Amino acid sequence: SDQRLNFSKILAGFKKYPKPNRDLEYGTAGFRTKADLLDHVVFRVGVVACLRSMQKKKAIGLMITASHNIHSDNGVKIVDPLGDMLEQSWEKFVTDVVNSGEDSFEEKIMSIIRSNEIDTSIDGCLFLGWDTRPSSEHLASIACEGVSSLNGTVTKIGLCTTPVLHYVVRCHNDPAYGKASVDGYYDKLLTSFEKLWAKFDHIKKCYSPHIYFDGANGVGAITMEYVSGKIGDKIEIDLHNDDIKTPDKLNHCCGADFVKTQQKLPLSIPAKPCARLVSFDGDADRIMYYFVDPENQFHLLDGDRMATLIAMFLRQIIQEAELDVSLGIVQTAYANGSSTKFITETLKVDVSCVKTGVKYLHHEALKYDIGIYFEANGHGTVIFSQRLKDEIKLKLVSDNEKITSAATTLSLFVDMVNETVGDALSDLLIVETILHAKDWDLSEWEKLYDVLPYQMAKVTVKNRNAITTTDAERRCVTPVELQPKIDEMVSSFKFGRAFVRPSGTEDIVRVYAEAVTQAEANELALRISILVYDLAGGIGERPSLF
Ligand code: G16
């Protein structure tokens, strides 16, 4: 009989890690919940990821992290062969197995094998990474047991950022993309960064080579410590929130998510006027830039700002290189209304809006030769078509010096980008390069357009899936009474816009509101939160206006 399909081995794991009563769903970025509810999940995900690897005859990645969530949560994301997120049709397969009991898993697994015509004589191959959470290593070892139960092999990358894991998986399956190792990752990004930097190395008036860095007390802090040693002669990195030994400090009053949702400085970052401040999130796939002006006002440069900065820069370079290629930006409903207006009216670049989750943005961005995608929360990257990469090669050998120079810039830029997924380090190198090239500080960057004030809120409800949405999450379908009430409320606020959606990473409903002043945006968010609480089964304390 086929050694790989030894159901007794899989059954042993199902018995060892029994499923609690509650079913789980594959959320915005994989399974995510309280860390102590995840043993059975990671075992089963290990099994299904191994099947996925056998089906594709390629390596697959598993990342144990709950990213921006509280330290006591954890989660697991599955990475597909090209380093992107697991294909959506497989989310259902993995969810079925995660939620099945001892009596039905065999049938579920057989059905995956049959419907995907998986050759079970193939060896599954997995790469495994994890973040700094206290539960991560334990969960990673159970995931290994899952993979082993199908006789798959696991290469442990160990403690790493999410984007490093995505990158290594891609390189293993597509060696032309780079060397499949952590060193290979740093080498590719930092070498292209240094070369690009040298191209723009003129006297600076505005750009200051100094940043204050908030590592969210997570794995991003280790990354930046390393990077600081490599590029310290170009950018001085002042490390803060780099305590990975105290678990409950992770993301606590710090990190990219905190800064974006609270619109204020994280703990331990000095409020030095006009200094360039940067935060990563817990697994370093998101980034935020911000500063405090001389009047002590807080200014945020978020994912929308990065998308527009990059689009502006790349549009100019492709013109200089005389490349005829398509360029587009992908956003979500969280994109500030004025950023979308700036992209269409001033930059005259194509923009589309999709559901929250990098998996949706990435997919949409593939439609362009240069697809720039960013969630407002700082999660994003740029992807380049093969056609564009081929065209650049031709331009590199042009007789026209201006064209070859622009093509060189573009080619180095491509190598500095981690195209597999949002990557805070790669994004930082991109932003720093552009600011350095333009000799801008953050206030110059901010001048591109004015944002509408916004407010974000969370509401706890009995069942967050009672809220369903349509139109890229901009409109709510159920409970049916909710959207008309939101419309009515929004119409009484100048430049009002608001939407609600269930989070796919936390057990809450998210509320977003924009209006002409901060006070009005705050009030709109609060009024919408009350509507959600009243109409969608709120629990705990009712949000209140007073
Ligand atoms: C994940 C996803 C992001 C998403 C965020 C919040 O980020 O990768 O695409 O924007 O969750 O999702 P939700 O609003 O559904 O909770 P991370 O950094 O937590 O992995």
From TrEMBL:
Annotated positions binding Mg(2+): 67, 281, 283, 285
Listed EC numbers: 5.4.2.3
GO biological process, one term: cell wall organization
Pathway: Nucleotide-sugar biosynthesis; UDP-N-acetyl-alpha-D-glucosamine biosynthesis; N-acetyl-alpha-D-glucosamine 1-phosphate from alpha-D-glucosamine 6-phosphate (route I): step 2/2
Keyword Metal-binding: yes
Domain Alpha-D-phosphohexomutase C-terminal residue range list: 493-528
UniProt key word Phosphoprotein: yes
Cofactor: Mg(2+)
Protein residues bound to substrate: 375-377, 501-505, 510
Domain Phosphoacetylglucosamine mutase AMG1 positions: 181-287, 302-440
The record's free-text note on cofactor binding: Binds 1 Mg(2+) ion per subunit.
Matches recorded under CDD domains: PGM3
Matching InterPro entries: A-D-PHexomutase_a/b/a-I, A-D-PHexomutase_a/b/a-I/II/III, A-D-PHexomutase_C, A-D-PHexomutase_C_sf, AMG1_II, AMG1_III, PAGM
Molecular-function annotations in GO: metal ion binding; phosphoacetylglucosamine mutase activity
Catalytic activity: N-acetyl-alpha-D-glucosamine 1-phosphate = N-acetyl-D-glucosamine 6-phosphate
Catalytic site: 67
Keywords from the UniProt entry: Carbohydrate metabolism, Cell wall biogenesis/degradation, Isomerase, Magnesium, Metal-binding, Phosphoprotein
Occurrences of domain Alpha-D-phosphohexomutase alpha/beta/alpha (ranges): 57-101, 122-172
Family: Belongs to the phosphohexose mutase family.
Role summary: Catalyzes the conversion of GlcNAc-6-P into GlcNAc-1-P during the synthesis of uridine diphosphate/UDP-GlcNAc, which is a biosynthetic precursor of chitin and also supplies the amino sugars for N-linked oligosaccharides of glycoproteins.
Protein name (Swiss-Prot/TrEMBL): Phosphoacetylglucosamine mutase
